[in-house]
Structures are given as C-alpha cells and as structure tokens.
C-alpha cells in the first residue's frame, strides 16, 4: 500500500528498503546507555515486536564499539548507528555490522576523514543518513533557522557526499515547529530525490507530542512526501512505534489488519458498562490472538465496541463484528449491523474471538 507518493531513490538497510516503491517504514531509537547490552537488546526486541522496521542506537565513543558488536550479534533487525563528529566511530560501527549510519559529513573534519568513512560505507553497502535540525544549523553562517536555511544546511552535507560520488543517502530535516518541518521537507522534496526520514525534534511527550507529530508527519505523507518516519517522544520508545504505525494507517500508507472502532458513549450507555476497559481488553486480546495470523494478509477485520444497542449496531454496520451495550452488564453481539445474541459484558472478548475464528475457518 503506497499511495500517491513522490518517487525517491531507494536505499537498502539490511533488506529493508527505504524510498523507491517501498512501504513507508517506522523506526525508533533505544534510550539506554549502550553499555547496558542486555537492556538495549531487550528494548530492541520490544521495538521490533511492536513493529519497528529499523532501530537506531547512539554510539557515543570508541569504547561503545565492543558493546555494539555484542548487540549486533544478539539481534537480526536493521540497526542504525547514531554518530556525532567522530569519523573513527562511524568506521568502526560500520565494521561492527551496523546497517546505516546517521552522521553529518560536514561535521567530520577533513576531506580525507570523510573519504575514509565513505569508503567503509561503500565497502559494506551502508547508507548514510544526514540529519539536520534547528540546533545543527550553523548560526554564524545562517542568522535564522528557517525552512530555507534548514534545507540549505542539509544540502551542504548532501553535496559533500555527492562530490565523493556517494548517493546512498537518506535525509532528515527536523524542527520542533510543525510548520517549519512541513515547509522544509516540502521544499527539499522539490529539489532532491533522496528518501526522506520524517519527524519532529524535541517534540515533547504524551498527547502534545502525538498530536504535533501526527499533524507534521501526516500532512507530509498525505502530500506524498516521506519514506520513513520516527515519532520522537520523551519516554518509552515502544510508544513511538505504536503511534508511528497509527499515523501511517491514518495517512493511508499501511493497512490495519485489525481495526478496533468504538463510540464515545453518551447518556444512552448503561452505567453498568465500562466501555473504555472493554474496548482496551478487546484490542489487546484480539491483537495478541490474531495479530500474527492476519499480519501481511490482505484481509482487514473491523471490530466495533459500542455504548448502546439502540444505535450501536446500526452506526457500526460497517464492522465485521461488534458488541453493543445493553442493561445491567449485558451486551448484544452483532455482525454487519444485525443483532446475533445477548451476552454478558465480561464475555465480549470470548464471543468476538469465536466469531473471528469461524470467519477465518479455524
Ligand atoms: S452508539 Fe449509542 S452510546 Fe454510543 S454514542 Fe451512539 S447513541 Fe451514544
């Protein structure tokens, strides 16, 4: 599913394609010190289980390389190294089996050092991501951070790679400002074809981060811009993937194999029902039970959890199956708008599982 996307060059990151006709990927970054190998490996596995296509790890110094090697051995997913300034760390990370490096060539130092990094990247077929954000714009050269100076700053790094005949490039241009991010990425996509990594920087946490990231990333994706995304959020990185996947679904770039819809409830909902808890448990249990089975299939199942049986089955007649609240702890199981039977609210999950199993012929 790749809708109305601007065609970009393609890079390959351990089998994960970014750009070209590839699906928009979702990525995150570990937030534990790399010395905590066990914790970092567990975090990477949790991210992959949630759906991360790529995970980035900060490689802070040359001592980090030994830990990176251990992490590399323990996980098989595409890994990106986040390296700042030090060209030796970039080279050693590439030799340690990293699949992509985030480094800005303009910050490495001499041309000879850049060449060494690019030789290692070429030898190991490792793409480089140039990452520019408001804080990395050279303030001596550019007085203000604007969409134009963000793009010009990114282009300076891009040109260094191009001058060295290196084109395996991904670019990110991030700002904490939604409009700046949208404008800068739109502008860049008009003048270059490199795949774009979308996201905000210093995006905060919780609802505010979710909303701002959704607006910025969603807007660009709907314009056909963007090849991989990261929701940068203070807190558990697994949440970044959960939200990133939802953004991709809302922007029509991914199909949700299991879609749970629910009503906001109103005065018609019987006080005996806690619809939020029921909806959460339906989503959790059904995702665990059917996630693996439905993933990658062309089938989408929609389940509705509605607050009343008067309007619920009709409002959610598009759903394959649903439950709608009745009185005194009872609900009505329905399918395609038709009422099937009365059930106890605490049995909603059991009945929904049975119906889905029948539908799938299990
Ligand atoms: S389905 Fe019923 S409870 Fe839910 S919003 Fe509609 S009328 Fe209200």
Please give a handful of descriptors for the protein shown.
362 residues; binds iron/sulfur cluster; Sulfite Reductase Hemoprotein, domain 1; five-stranded mixed sheet; 20% strand; TIM Barrel
Summarize the structure.
This protein has 362 residues and is α/β, with parallel strands linked by helices. The chain contains eleven helices and 15 strands.
Describe the structure.
Helices cover about 40% and strands about 20% of the residues. Strand 5 (about 80), helix 3 (about 85-95) and strand 6 form a beta-alpha-beta unit. The strands form three sheets. Strands 3-4-5-6-7-8-9-10 form an eight-stranded parallel barrel, surrounded by six helices. With about 350 residues, the chain is α/β, with parallel strands linked by helices. The protein has eleven helices and 15 strands. The protein has two domains: about 10-250, Dihydropteroate synthase-like (TIM Barrel); about 260-360, Sulfite Reductase Hemoprotein, domain 1. It has helices at about 35-50, 65-75, 85-95, 110-125, 145-165, 180-190, 205-220, 235-250, 275-295, 310-315, 350-360; strands spanning about 10-15, 15-20, 25-30, 55-60, 80, 100, 130-135, 170-175, 195-200, 230, 260, 300-305, 320-325, 330-335, 340-345. Helix 1 (about 35-50) crosses helix 2 (about 65-75). It binds iron/sulfur cluster. Iron/sulfur cluster (SF4) binds next to helix 10.
